[in-house]
Amino acid sequence: MQTDKITKASRKPDLTVLHAEYERSVQNCYRQERITTQDNTRFCRWAGQTDDGRKWSSSRADIKEIFPWRGASDTRIPLADSICNDLVDLEVTAWARSVLRCGPTELNDVSAATTASTLMRWVQQQMAGEIEAEVELLSQWRHHYGLSIAFVGWCQESGTRVQAITMDDLAGISQQAPAGSLAAELPALVANPEAEDQAAELWVAQVGIEKREALRIVRELRETGRATMQVPIILKNRPVVLALKPWEDIVFPPETVRLQDARVIFRREMLNEVQVRQRVTDMGWDEGWVDEVCQHSGRMTPAIQPTTVTGEFSEVDSTQNLLEVVWAYARQLRDDGLTQITCTVFSPAVKDKFAFHEPLGYAHGKYPFVEFKREHAARRLIDSRGVPEICATWQHEVKVQRDAVADITSLTTVPPLLVSKRLGFVSRLGPAVQVQVTRQDDLAFMQPPARQPATAWELVQDVRLQADDYFGRANTGIPPVKTQLKQQRMINQWLAAWREVFDQAFVLAIQFISADEISRITGSPDVESLDPQNARYDFHLSFNVAEMDSDLTMKRLETISTAVVPLDAAGVIDRSKLVRMILQAIAPESAEELVTDVQGASQQIYNGVKSEIQGMMLGFEANYTDASNDPTAPMKMQFAQQLLQSNPAAQQAAQSNPAFQQLLQKYIQNLQMGVMQQQNKQIGRIGVAPREAAPVEPSPEEAPSQ
Predict the structure, then answer these.
(1) How many CB atoms are located within 10 Å of the residue 703 CB?
(2) Where are the beta strands (DSSP E) in 50-91?
(3) How far from the centroid of its chain's Cα atoms is residue 86's Cα?
(4) Residue 491 in contact with residue 94, Cβ under 8 Å?
């Protein structure tokens, strides 16, 4: 018998257990003190802080004496913030410049992998307008708190648009309708004032609009021959990726090691009343639950305090007009022994009702979440540390040295005065100020403490070197190879999580997009192999940190082009991929637009040769290329031979048309010169002429279509 009621599938949720588990997850995972400390460290916040970076007694009512004196240096040192932003810059750039590839897991899936890749690129384009902000948030929270989580779901949003309809349109509809049906009689019913009510009823049945609206359309069509109507359309039908802030947007049991193995996961939403009521229609939420929840505006889980960059919780109530809604996702065991992900929507403010409770229904059978851990020093998710937690003492040490240097500078510039007791104190001191004394030794500057600022700067540089070495930031005192290894490991972990995100998004795409639309998107008629229940594709997302150094990358590519490619007599190097790599190194933002696929490039060359031959048959001179710099000359020569051998009209013209013979001879000579120049370049590099390989006839699938 199951004792864990969370994992028992049922038609109605056990709200008592859900509320208790939610409170347990919040209290055991969410540590306000730990989060506040990390926020204060990164954003340089502390009690008594002033805008001018000085210590004043007026800002600290609880302290009578300011150390070392009023107006002493109290500067901000954003070391943790700087490290976080540098690492975020690296990860966001790696995400934007990474290459997503789809590979089959079985030999039979090779043909469908191309279709899957095309569909996945479409999915990326659909999310492109919104995902950039989520990418940065995921990276920011990953390094700030040590953990961030992505929610991967499917967004379906309907709307309407205005469409005009005329009597001619009705005539076309009636012609296509079966004879004797009411639809076939629709134009006559609309034109007959006495049949107005019947025509409106038919319109309601066909379109599903209100009868009052249907009557308006019928009358306008009869009187003017034209009317407008609201037509339902799908505004959004695509995957959505949202960044979730740990312990504020999402909580889970403290023993959780991997989200996919969690007993239950809670996702929090802060919604206004309009959004909650709208979901009664859009998502089928219980209306009675909504009415009761809306009475608890601004009531939040006490243990969870929303964090901000400013940290001023008391001055602004950011939750006054919001409602707390919790989505509980639990992996449950059914009576038949199978498992399912069940989704329940409830509110901590309402203990005895829920809004929604149904199986999630995603084909991949996973929780719609992917974790992004910053470090893997321990198994539990809550044990991953953020940058501020690690470098807090380093940042404080730098601050102490910086404040000390500023204070010593102040003491050196205007040292304290030694004043004779019989004179009292000097009330004013500054440049060109006259101070009256009775004896020469009545006033004297006190000797400042012996301290060398250079020592402080050495300590500061040593701390920064230690921080850069730990977090993989570039520093002249650290071997570049060591920095690159740390950065590459971080990027590999970052992109590995994104591969799981794209894998879930792909399964949702082939689940919720119709086969006809997938065929239109991919251009492939065979989409039956894309089975959402058994998707067998591996998505690879990779980025080489060394590519950030453009000079090094160009040197490597130049070496490949000048030293390796000339030795490739067997043709093992894919030159089209080499060209793509060079373009990505030079102009990554333009590579996607400039480079076509191999088949498309071959087709363009083939069509160009065919156009040249057709023009010469009509008496036009061919467009000759620079024979010394035409790497496509061998391919053009091969295509020209194929066209002349396979086209009887061209063969006849070559035998009977002197003008065509002359033009063709000059064109072939130009191509032959180009071929010879390419061979001479290779001989000049390696010193010998490689043995010519026997020509390989392309297969029917590989040959360009004619």
Answers:
(1) 13
(2) none
(3) 18
(4) yes
Residue ranges in 477-527 assigned as alpha helix (H): 480-512, 515-522
d(CA 405, CA 234): 64
- Give residue 595's pLDDT band: very low, low, confident or very high (50, 70, 90): low
CA dist 448 and 348 (Å) reads: 62
Return d(Cα 6, Cα 191) in angstroms, integer: 63
28 C-beta neighbours (distance < 10 Å), count: 13
- pLDDT higher than threshold 80 for residue 430: no
Q: Would you say residue 304 has pLDDT above 80? A: no
The dihedral formed by the CA atoms of 579, 582, 586 and 588, expressed in degrees to the nearest 10 = 70
pLDDT above 90 covers a percentage of the chain that reads 32
CA–CA distance, 278 with 295 (Å, rounded to integer): 16
**Residue 302 confidence (pLDDT) above 80:** no
The Cα 326–Cα 678 span in angstroms is 68
Secondary element (H or E) of residue 163: strand 147-166
pTM exceeds 0.85: no
DSSP codes of every residue in 89-135: HHHHHHHHH-EEEEEESSGGGHHHHHHHHHHHHHHHHHHHHHHHHHH
331 DSSP β-pair partners: 341
pLDDT at 372 over 90: yes
CA-closest candidate to residue 187, choices 209, 202, 208: 202
The three state secondary structure string of 337-376 is CCEEEEEEEEECCECCCCCEEEECCCCCCCCCEEEEECCC
Tokens 């994104």, located at residue: 498
Q: Is the pLDDT assigned to residue 526 strictly greater than 60?
A: yes
Mean pLDDT of 196-212: 80
**Residue 579 near residue 595, CB atoms below 8 Å:** yes
What residues contact residue 273 under an 8 Å CB cut-off, 6+ apart? 294, 297, 321, 323
Q: Give the model's pLDDT for residue 482.
A: 94
Average pLDDT, the chain: 81
Residues in the chain: 706
Strand extents, DSSP E, 414-485: 417-419, 443-445
Let me know: does 103 contact 537? Beta carbons within 8 Å. Answer: yes
Tens digit of each residue's pLDDT (9 = 90 or more) over 218-262: 888 888 888 888 777 777 788 899 999 998 899 999 999 999 999
Contact status, residue 374 vs residue 384, Cβ threshold 8 Å: yes
Beta-carbon count within 10 A of 605 CB: 15
Residue 321 to residues 299, 305, 350, 677: CA-CA distances in angstroms? 9, 16, 17, 76
Distance of CA 670 to the CA centre of its chain: 50
Q: Tokens 């040959």 appear where?
A: 703
For tokens 């504020």, the residue is 248
CA dihedral 37, 38, 41, 47 (to 10 degrees): -30
Most confident of 70-79, 208-217, 297-306: 70-79
pLDDT at 494 over 50: yes
For residue 547, the one-letter residue type is E
In contact, 690 and 682? CB cutoff 8 Å: yes
